[in-house]
Design goal:
Layout (H helix, E strand, L loop, with lengths): L11 H8 L1 H5 L5 H19 L7 H15 L4 H14 L4 H33 L5 E5 L3 H8 L9 E5 L6 H11 L4 E4 L4 H6 L3 E4 L3 E2 L5 E4 L2 H11 L3 E4 L19 E4 L6 E4 L2 E3 L13
Parallel strand pairs: 1-2, 1-4, 2-3, 4-7, 7-9
Antiparallel strand pairs: 5-6, 6-8, 9-10
Length: about 290
């Protein structure tokens, strides 16, 4: 029996969407790693745009923006980039748009490259003397934060929630062990009790909106609420690329994420220093 293959031509929209398919289904990497991959895909597309008629570029920019939003609709860098690309589609004469797009890619690449060093500086300066630290999910930014202090000021014990569905916390506990940090992975249901007995709750962020609300792994809000009731500081470690500068869209978040209001967050440690929104409480120094 012969199998007939479809001869339907693949549209430009489908070709662009395929570029981001692996990023869309990835459940193991953190937001920073996915952002780097996505930006490289945009750069690859831009190399092809050089050979296309200038009048087709606005369409390609808008379709790339849509593909970014669909790939990771909860991640701040993806949302901000989609907004930027739509703006580029409407900016200036057609023959200048490609140059502007290439400049935008170089600027965002440089921004992503500089973020880790800036995060380390902020975290090294700000990290309190905490015996027990709780975190969840798998965040490269949190890993940098936990490694940043000198050996004598690093947490004595790091408790990582397993972060179901997906179990990224188990992978993160291994990352911490490899980095020489003492980590223990626990069930998600034990998270609130662990937070109440800790000195610091530290989490990453997939997106930070203009009001300071944070999108992160589902379960983050419950832990932050528990920490506030127990008087435990809550720190979000996030590079400036995660800050959208805009308010949260009305659409619902994907099921594996939740939204934590700024009133539950003590500080944001960023590559550009410390930021606060609602709360002004500082992480306390634990007595050893």
């Amino acid at each position: 029996m012969h199998r007939f293959r479809s001869t339907r031509p693949i549209s430009a929209t489908e070709l662009i969407a395929r570029r981001f398919r692996m990023i869309r289904i990835d459940r193991s990497q953190g937001a920073q790693a996915l952002a780097v991959q996505a930006l490289e895909e945009v750069a690859s597309l831009a190399r092809g745009w050089r050979h296309d008629p200038p009048e087709t570029l606005p369409y390609a920019l808008r379709q790339t923006a849509a593909a970014l939003e669909q790939a990771q609709p909860a991640m701040g860098s993806f949302l901000r980039w989609a907004y930027d690309l739509r703006g580029l589609a409407q900016s200036g004469p057609p023959n200048r748009r490609l140059r502007k797009a290439q400049h935008w890619i170089r600027r965002e690449r440089s921004r992503l490259r500089r973020e880790p060093a800036g995060l380390i500086r902020t975290c090294r300066r700000r990290f309190p003397e905490a015996r027990i630290v709780v975190t969840l999910s798998r965040s490269r930014s949190v890993l940098l934060a936990l490694k940043a202090p000198p050996a004598g000021r690093r947490p004595g014990r790091i408790v990582v929630l397993e972060s179901l569905p997906g179990g990224e916390g188990r992978l993160f506990a291994k990352d911490l062990d490899i980095a020489g940090l003492s980590a223990r992975c626990i069930a998600d249901r034990a998270g609130p009790d662990a937070v109440a007995a800790s000195d610091l709750l530290i989490v990453g962020a997939d997106a930070v909106f203009a009001d300071g609300s944070v999108v992160h792994k589902v379960g983050t809000r419950i832990l932050a609420e528990t920490a506030r009731r127990a008087g435990v500081p809550v720190v979000v470690v996030a590079g400036s690329s995660k800050f959208t500068g805009r308010y949260r869209p009305r659409r619902a978040l994907p099921l594996r994420f939740d939204l934590t209001p700024p009133r539950f967050i003590t500080e944001f440690w960023t590559d550009r220093g410390v930021r606060t929104f609602a709360s002004q409480r500082r992480p306390r120094r634990a007595a050893l």
